[in-house]
Write a structure and sequence with these properties.
Elements lengths: L2 H5 L1 H12 L25 H18 L4 E2 L2 E2 L7 H7 L6 H17 L1
Antiparallel strand pairs: 1-2
Length: about 110
C-alpha cells in the first residue's frame, strides 16, 4: 500500500462505499476520533493531508470514468491538489448546499 492510501485510507474507503451501494447519513456517534498535534490533518501536516485526499479524489474520478465534473474536464493525469479541488468548487455555492440539505431531509423523511 502506498503512502497516499495509508494516510487517506478512510476517505478512500468512503468513496468506494458510495461506488458499491446506497449510503445514508446516520446522525449518531459510533466511534470517537482522536486528534493530536502530530496527526496528519493537524498543523504543518495539513497541506500534506489535503494533497493526499486530492489524490484519493482523483483516483475515484478515474475509477468512475468521469470525464467532466460540473462542466469542467477531469485531467488525464494527477498534477496537483489545486486542480482537483477547483473541480469541486461548485459544492461550496449556497444553491448547491441548500439542494443537498433538502435531498438529505427528503431521504430522512421517506426512508
Amino acid at each position: 500500500m502506498d503512502t497516499v492510501m495509508r494516510i487517506a485510507e478512510d476517505q478512500d474507503l468512503y468513496l468506494k462505499m458510495y461506488e458499491k451501494g446506497k449510503v445514508q447519513f446516520i446522525n449518531e456517534a459510533h466511534y470517537l476520533y482522536r486528534t493530536h498535534s502530530g496527526g496528519i490533518s493537524q498543523n504543518e501536516n495539513r497541506p500534506k493531508s489535503r494533497e493526499y485526499f486530492a489524490k484519493v479524489i482523483f483516483n475515484a474520478m478515474k475509477r468512475r470514468n468521469l470525464k467532466t465534473i460540473n462542466g469542467k474536464a477531469v485531467p488525464n493525469e494527477y498534477s496537483n491538489s489545486t486542480e482537483i479541488y477547483s473541480l469541486l468548487e461548485y459544492q461550496s455555492s449556497i444553491v448547491f448546499r441548500i439542494k443537498k440539505k433538502l435531498k438529505i431531509f427528503v431521504q430522512q423523511v421517506f426512508s
